[in-house]
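Now for my pick.
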Amino acid sequence: MESGRCEPDHSAYYLLMVASSPKSVGLGGDGDEIVAVAGVERTFGIKLDYADAPHWVTAGDLFASLDKALPQVERGRPDLWKRFAVALCGQTGVDPDDIEPNSPLLSQSRFWSRLADASAAVWLIAVVGLVVVIAVTALAWS
């Protein structure tokens, strides 16, 4: 409570959580995840079951779908995770060695989705402004 506030200071806990959180695969949710999944399929010569896609939150979730799609002789190979991580990170520039099964697929910064939200807000303001100008002009002419 050294912060001078009535509630406890959780900054140390927050820093610990951020430091111990797994690194994201870095996908933006803007279509690059489709390219990344296609890269995994191409690397392993398989087709993933897209019925599993709503459950792909972490690299481990996607890896489980890959494991189901692989022939039995391919499963359990010692280089399987490494090949998967390299294929998955091909679009993002994230170091495949930093990826763990619990690494989120989507980037936690969500910069691009925030940018899209901001762009939508600007367009909305512009449209509303245009409607107001048209209404004022119409009133002035009447």
In short: Residues 114 and 120 are 10 Å apart (CA to CA).
